[in-house]
Design a protein that fits this description.
Strand order of the largest sheet: 11-12-10-9-7-14
Strand content: 15-25%
Mean pLDDT: 79
Radius of gyration: 52 Å
Largest sheet: 6 strands, mixed
Low-confidence stretches: 466-487
Distance between the termini: 38 Å
Structural class: alpha+beta
Helix content: 40-55%
Number of helices: 11
Length: 487
Amino acid sequence: MRGGFRNRLIVTVIALVVVTATVVAGISYLLVQRSLRRQLVDDAIVQTEFNVGVLASNDVLPTGASRAQFEASGLADRFLQRGPSALYVEFDGSDDSFASDFSMVDAGSSIDPELRALVGAGRLGYAFLGDGSDAELLVGARRPSGGPDFYFFFSAAEIDAALGELRRVLVLAGVGVTLLGALVAGLVARGVLRPVRNASRAAAEIAGGDLSVRLPVESSDEFGQWAATFNSMAASLDAKIRELDAARRREAQFVADVSHELRTPLTALVSEAEMLSAHLDQMPPPARRAGELLSRDVARLRALVSDLLEISRLDASDAPTATDEFSLAAFLQAEIDARLPAAVLAAEDVLVACDRRALDRIVGNLLDNAALHAQGAAVLVAASVSDGRLEVTVADLGPGATEEALSHLFDRFYTADPSRTGGTGLGLAIAQAHAQRLGGALEVKANTPSGLVFTLEIPVTELLPQRDGVAMLPSHDRGETTTRGGS
């Protein structure tokens, strides 16, 4: 996916910000909660100690006092005036209790047994009850001289409300920090990955053929060193490609020069071989055999020089181009008649316009290859035109080639079967070069059940179809008509 690493970097930074903000907010909330509750507890304890130790002295409330004595002392009102929201009192040796409010009648059931035991042992204890507007702090204590047990309820609603407001603020702050982190992450990712984007664009331009592209070295850090290394690599690649291109031009020029220089003595050799061939019947058998070998080798040399000259022109882009109008079926039949009369043709009878000479070289070389490497096997030539593209297939049922050989069939001077003679090893390379020059392609694959299928596809102009359908031209072998699949 495009920008995948950038997205992952942004997500990582945002996740780090979210985790950090959550941890900080959580710790802050716990510290504030602890501080507020600690303050409430401290104030409530001070108030409770004063109520129990000072206001409820033995002079006001004797030890072992009953509920009636407590109510008569007026301590309940004095306690409630000093801060507690409610009061609950349990008296020794009695199941009776005092509640400052009707809703507090069952307050004894809400007191934790541990708190009750702590107060019964003469120690002061506290516990938080409820939440929200019902949040309360319960503080219990017993007078030092003994009974009764006092339980003071202090409202913690304000603390809970403050904590709720703090939670909302922390959530909003977390959202804001996350959005800010996303913005910063995008800017950081953009800045960090800018050298990578520049390198990607530079690599794409180099792949497109522009070897002069270089990266700006803007710093001395790892990215700066990377840019310098990239520039060094690009410069080295540029130099190597220039050297290879110069070597290729020298090689092509050498082949062209040698081939050109060979033409003059070769012409003389061809003439002399033809003169010799005209008198072979008058020669004794040993001399006749030598003359036949000489004529054949001169013909092969002539073909080799001709192929070398043509491939040199193709390498130098000096091969002439022309646009000719001709009948596709008639053209292919003429090629078959001249090179492989036993082949069968299945082609649309249409008029096309393209470089006839180049097409002649391509199809002719494919037929020559089939005649040489698929001797005696059935060969089918098929052609069709669709959407301005001409497709020609030459399929044979010969011995075929191995997977390794298939990848080298278009290499120059490559011979799949070195034991066979008669070719120059340049025919398929020339055919492919012509196909590429015409803006098309030439490919090969294994045929079924055996043999090879060569497929040529080039752009053409279809002028005027002469008739619909496919023309099945008869084989020249006893006038039989043969049809079969080519691939």
